[in-house]
Amino acid sequence: MVVASAHGDDVVRRRYPESFLMPSLIDDPRVAAQWADRLHVAPGPAGCIALLSLAGDIDALTLPLLCTALVTALERRPAHLVVDMPEIRYCGVRGFVLLAATARASAANGIGYAVSGVGSHLDRAARRIWSGQQLICYPTAAAAVAAICEQQLAPPPARVSSSTRAPR
């Protein structure tokens, strides 16, 4: 679902055709602007970190809004995206599927992805949906940002050269 091109919302629509029911949510800049107070982008040591804070319920009614929020966050082209969920009371299966798909697409496009603040009432469902991939989860948004900054500051792992020759 990452917006790898200027037409990233088309990727979302192909992956989540139910977003066609309310296409104006993705296209309307006023709807995207509503996330301004919930989306914070801060510079990190090696790229921006986008923190998207969610609240309320994620269900069939709010799924298109979540999709718009994720697209808005990814359009900022952050090095990492953290989805903060401590104020989420309920998240339906489709909400978790959307979050997991965002994680896969982010990874495929070189964007780090993590969730934070997943309450115990949501943890079991989140881990079941994410069963085929690694769920990077932090207890708080602050812990997520601190860990990401630490990762960005760490030197890259040493590479083993594949062109080494056997001794003669």
Q: How would you sum up this structure, described in words?
A:
By secondary structure, the chain is of the alpha/beta class. The protein has a single domain, classed as STAS domain (Transcription Regulator spoIIAA), CATH 3.30.750. It has helices spanning 8-15, 23-27, 29-33, 63-75, 93-108, 120-129, 141-153, and strands spanning 39-44, 47-58, 80-91, 112-116, 137-138. Strands 1-2-3-4-5 form a five-stranded mixed beta sheet, with helices on both faces. α4 (63-75) runs parallel beside α5.
Brief rundown of the structure:
This protein has one domain (8-151): STAS domain (Transcription Regulator spoIIAA), CATH 3.30.750.24. It is built from seven helices and five strands; from the N terminus they run αααββαβαβαβα. The chain has helices spanning 8-15, 23-27, 29-33, 63-75, 93-108, 120-129, 141-153, and strands spanning 39-44, 47-58, 80-91, 112-116, 137-138.
Keywords:
168 residues, alpha/beta, Transcription Regulator spoIIAA, 5-stranded mixed β-sheet, 22% strand, disordered C terminus
Number of helices: 7
- What is the beta-strand fraction? 15-25%
| C-alpha end-to-end distance | 51 Å
Poorly predicted regions are: 1-26, 163-168
Helix-and-strand structural type: alpha/beta
The CATH first-level class comes to Alpha Beta
CATH-level-2 architecture: 2-Layer Sandwich
Number of domains: 1
- Principal-axes shape call: globular
How much is the radius of gyration in Å?
18 Å
Q: CATH superfamily assignment?
A: STAS domain
Strand order of the largest sheet: 1-2-3-4-5
Helix content: 40-55%
Stated plainly, the CATH topology is called Transcription Regulator spoIIAA
> What is the residue-mean pLDDT, rounded to a whole number?
75
**Main sheet specs:** 5 strands, mixed
Strand elements, count: 5
- H/E topology pattern: HHHEEHEHEHEH
